[in-house]
């Protein structure tokens, strides 16, 4: 079953599926070099077509220079990004990393508003909005994370909280921008209990509708919306069969080369 690129609708752009690995706080720069080499070999040996399914890794900050050097030297087609950035450009912000620094390392993407940052670092919708604007200002594509907790789900139903978080994240945006949205239900992250493909589709469709009303039909049609939360090679195909799910943000399973390659190669097991 051919599922790429996602069909263009209403004259909008087709969406290239995107498999993104969020390493979280795992793998130092030496481990990152070994991992990225193995991943690149694994995908090359499998004949992976990066134009058909984009693959990216999101290492810790201290790994990024090593990953950049390796990707550039070996002309790897793998993309990479950071897991966070500062809302500020430069100055007295101890411990923070500017989007300008990430741009200087050719980072294509940056994850913003992951639930672990919202939960453990007090990131509010306002902070997420400021960081999203900063990423765009520096030419880095934000991967904006939204998702409800189990309590939110019980109290507000499936889409209300993710849609409100999306509205908050895009508060400073008034014109079309290159964005990726990741729907990650908090209850599904690291729990082994993924959402069902139908649940993911329902929320991703609601997020796309919201994008349409905020930024217009063209942005809604062109923006990739990922699902994240206990994605594995055994369940990825079900998510990618959904019309509004354009890829996955993978945590634990992105730390295993064979497993992550297999997720990126989901088209080979769609329908099995
Ligand atoms: P898991 O794939 O480990 O559930 O993590 C998902 C996630 O948080 C990716 O950002």
Describe the structure.
By secondary structure, the protein is an alpha/beta fold. It has one domain: TIM Barrel (Alpha-Beta Barrel). The protein contains eleven helices and eight strands. It has helices at residues 29-45, 64-73, 99-104, 115-120, 125-137, 150-156, 160-169, 197-215, 217-222, 236-240, 257-264; strands at residues 18-22, 54-58, 79-82, 109-112, 141-146, 180-183, 224-228, 247-250. Strands 1-2-3-4-5-6-7-8 form an eight-stranded parallel beta barrel, surrounded by five helices. Strand 3 (79-82), helix 3 and strand 4 form a beta-alpha-beta unit. Helix 1 runs parallel beside helix 2. The radius of gyration is 17 Å and the shape is globular. It starts with 17 loop residues before the first strand and ends in an 8-residue tail after the last helix. The relative contact order is 0.16. Bound molecules: 1,3-dihydroxyacetonephosphate. 1,3-dihydroxyacetonephosphate is lined by residues 22, 114, 184, 189-190, 228-231, 249-253.
